[in-house]
Amino acid sequence: MTEVLFFARAREVAGTSRQVFEGETVAEIISAAVDRFGPELAEVCATASFVVDGEMILRSELATAHPGSEMAVLPPVSGGA
Amino acid sequence: MEPTIVVGLESSALDAAGLVEKVRCAAAGGLVVFEGTTRSPNHGVDVIALDYEAWEERVPQQLAGIAAEVAQAHGLLGAVGVHRIGRVAVGEAAVVVVAAAAHRDAAFAGARELIDRIKSEAWIWKREIRPDGSVWVEGCE
Question: Per the CB 3.0–4.6 Å rule, which of A6, A78, B68, B73 could disulfide with A14?
Fold first, then answer.
């Protein structure tokens, strides 16, 4: 089980800031979340970064990386004014 | 001597002058302060306020890492990086950075790198509140 954390537009699209999913890879978790919350989440995930248990996952590793116990979905950041 | 590092997320107005005092020291001959403030219009669109969201459990540690690296790179005596969360009205500071160094060149360069890295790396997002609705801003300029 992986607790997925959603931030900013991902949180708004999902309608929640956290949800538990089952999956063997980051890609499987994304797919399960898109099935649950709809295609707009796929659009968000296309440009998001993913952090698993504190480690940034490269996009090339999404299909193979284990999703860990906590996986954050992070849209492109926009801090500062 | 270890540099003084001051970072954090705040849900109320930032006090730039107070933050400067936290890194003022006898050896610092240069103190550069940068405030990033909510502006209107932004690219021709009226803005009422910005709503900031952060990964609150992780960002303080992330800001501390950025500040320590920038301080090391520029030989700073002090580095400050504090960001607002929640609603920030037009004209209010969303972020304050301060770089304290023995000389001005390092202080200016350090402050510049602090704000650039906070904007591009910190897990913080803003939503622009406009008269006719709101939009998430994605990516830094």
Answer: A6
CATH number at residue B81: 3.90.1170.40
- pTM of this structure: 0.96
| Strand pairing class (A55-57; A70-74) | unpaired
CB contacts, 8 Å: B39 with chain A: 81
Residue A31's domain spans which residues? 2-74
Of B93, B95, B136, the CB nearest to A8: B136
pLDDT the model gives residue B139: 87
Judge whether B67 and B5 are in contact, CB under 8 Å: yes
Across the A:B interface, residue pairs with CB atoms under 8 Å apart total 75
| ipTM for this model | 0.95
Distance from CA of B139 to the nearest CA of A (A): 5
Strand order across the beta sheet in which A70-74 lies:
A18-21, A2-6, A70-74, A49-52, A55-57
Closest approach of B46 to chain A, Cα-based (Å): 15
From the first residue on, what is the mean pLDDT of each consecutive set of 10 residues in chain A (81 residues)? 97 98 98 98 97 96 97 97 85
**Which DSSP symbol is given to B2?**
P
pLDDT of B140 reads 80
Do the chains contact at B126 and A78, CB–CB below 8 Å? yes
Name the H helices within chain B. Answer: 16-23, 59-74, 104-121
> How many structural domains are present in chain A?
1
Domain that holds residue B84: 4-137
Which residues 6+ apart lie within 8 Å of A53 measured at CB?
A68, A69, A70, A71
Which amino acid type is present at position A42? A
